[in-house]
Design a protein that fits this description.
It is found in: Cell membrane; Membrane raft. Its main location: membrane. The structure is a single chain. It is built from eleven helices and twelve strands. With 481 residues, the protein is α+β, with helices and mostly antiparallel strands. The chain folds into three domains: 156 residues, Beta-Lactamase, CATH 3.30.450; 108 residues, Signal transduction histidine kinase, dimerisation/phosphotransfer (DHp) domain (Helix Hairpins), CATH 1.10.287.130; 157 residues, Histidine kinase-like ATPase, C-terminal domain (Heat Shock Protein 90, 2-Layer Sandwich). The strands form three sheets. It has a five-stranded antiparallel sheet with strand order 2-1-5-4-3, sandwiched between helices. Strands 7-9-10-12-11 form a five-stranded mixed sheet. Strands 6-8 form a two-stranded antiparallel sheet. A hairpin with a 3-residue loop joins strand 11 and strand 12.
């Protein structure tokens, strides 16, 4: 992460420095060039204006005399500019300063020719004996056809160059300040970016170690915050997946433990009885028949367990196909009650059917609905010692509500939400007396949901339980199709 922070800092620094240096550098060059050109043009125009004033002052003096020299000296003092006069041969005949060493020397032929033809000339001269270059302008001396020669004004351009140098120095200091400011800004930006990224990295590392409860906490409102929220969302999903995995693992372990427990009990009994019979410990025929009956009962228990497991696996894997037809609920309830009537009589329990009015038919698989009701009645008979079991049905909006009510031991509120789980038994202490696989209600729930129905239970310990199943009637199916 430190390497990434350095990399971010380096990239931002290079980007800012390149922007500052290129921007200020190019701007400085363009500004200095434009300023130099502007100052030169301004100085040139000023010198031309001065030269015209000098020409106006000596226009009537074609010859060099003391009065003309005095005028030149006066203009020199006024304008602070050197003034030369040259004749038609291009030789310097007068200057604004006394004892000028350039008197008698010739000016450049090109300048003399242009001026004698009535044109102005501007040039930058390096005069012998002077270190600084001079800006020079030349105009005709005279007017119209009367041109006596030329007037040259020249002034040092040291001030212009000094001004340009100061501008360049100012730009250089501005560039240096920009570099320092850029470094400070880059340091802050790098810190503001790398700090939440380090937080994200630490959180991602914890998530990678399996700590899915870890969350990223950043106080930004930019793309880094979006990244943090994405990681948090991913962590939440991973946490849910991990919880689901643990749940499935627990379910698998419980399933194996329950299957082992349910199989061990009957198999242990069968094994014990077989060993007793094999060793000849049971000599009387009546006792042997009792042993055979118990072994047969335990074998049937194992067979029921296997059948229920196969049914439940098929339901959970969506391998069960329903053969749906209109089913008369009243007729089905009466047949279920008739089939369980002998067992209820044997326990002294009243088994009643209560159907109010004419019921609409349900669109369902008759055999599977019968399986639902049989499981509920078996469950009621198992936990009811006396009283009655009532099977009722009533039309309720788009449903037919079927209820199986008993006056049995009831279910505690702690166990009520778990009764639909596989192998869950409300009272383990009664499991020897009331044998069962613990899969009946789980199968009921799966079958009801497969019919697009719903189920619930209400129970009061010591008073009894009511299991309610809602199944859609035929009219609902017809509207849907």
């Amino acid at each position: 992460m430190l390497g990434m922070s350095k990399s971010i800092f380096r990239r931002l620094l290079y980007s800012f420095l390149a922007t500052v240096l290129l921007g200020l550098g190019i701007s400085g060059i363009l500004i200095s060039m434009s300023a130099r050109e502007y100052f030169y043009d301004a100085k040139k125009e000023e010198l031309l204006r001065m030269a015209k004033n000098v020409n106006a002052a000596i226009l009537e003096r074609p010859r060099v005399d003391k009065k003309l020299l005095d005028i030149l000296a006066e203009k020199d003092q006024t304008y602070d500019t050197r003034i030369w006069l040259f004749n038609q041969e291009g030789k310097i005949v007068a200057t604004s300063m006394k004892d000028e060493v350039f008197t008698g020397k010739s000016v450049a032929v090109s300048i003399a020719d242009n001026v004698l033809q009535g044109k102005n000339a501007v040039t930058e001269l390096q005069i012998e004996g002077l270190d600084d270059p001079m800006l020079s302008v030349s105009i005709p001396w005279g007017e119209g056809e009367k041109v006596y020669g030329g007037i040259i004004l020249h002034a040092p351009i040291e001030g212009i160059e000094r001004t340009i140098a100061q501008m360049r120095e100012t730009i250089l200091w501005a560039t240096l300040f920009g570099v320092l400011l850029s470094t400070a800004m880059v340091s802050y930006l790098s810190w503001s970016i790398s700090r939440p990224l380090r937080t994200i990295e630490r959180t991602a590392t914890e998530i990678g170690r399996g700590n899915y409860a870890e969350r990223v906490q950043v106080n930004t409102s930019d793309e880094i915050n979006d990244l943090a929220q994405t990681i948090n969302t991913m962590a939440e999903k991973l946490e849910k997946v991990e919880q689901e995995r643990h749940h499935l693992e627990q379910v698998r372990n419980d399933f194996l433990a329950n299957v082992s427990h349910e199989l061990r009990t009957p198999l242990t009994a069968i094994q014990g009885f077989l060993e007793a019979l094999q060793d000849g410990l049971v000599e009387e025929e009546e006792a042997r028949q009792k042993y055979y009956a118990v072994m047969y009962s335990e074998t049937m228990q194992v067979n029921r367990l296997v059948d229920d497991l196969m049914d439940l696996m098929k339901l959970e894997n969506n391998e069960v196909t329903l053969a749906k037809f209109p089913v008369d609920v009243s007729d089905l309830l009466n047949k279920i009650a008739f089939s369980f009537h002998p067992e209820a009589e044997e326990k002294g329990i009243s088994l009643e059917v209560d159907v109010q009015g004419e019921l609409p038919k349900i669109y369902a698989d008759r055999d599977r609905v019968a399986q639902i009701l049989k499981n509920l009645v078996k469950n009621a008979l198992k936990f009811t010692e006396e009283g009655e079991i009532r099977l009722s049905a009533v039309a309720e909006e788009q449903w037919v509500r079927i209820q199986v009510t008993d006056t049995g031991v009831g279910i505690s509120s702690d166990d009520l939400h778990r009764i639909w789980e596989r192998f869950f038994k409300v009272d383990r202490g009664r499991s020897k007396k009331n044998k069962g696989t613990g899969l009946g209600l789980a199968i009921v729930k799966e079958l009801v949901e497969l019919h697009d129905g719903k189920c619930s239970v209400h129970s009061v310990p010591g008073e009894g339980s009511t299991f309610t199943v809602w199944l859609p009637n035929v009219a609902v199916y017809r509207q849907a199709t």
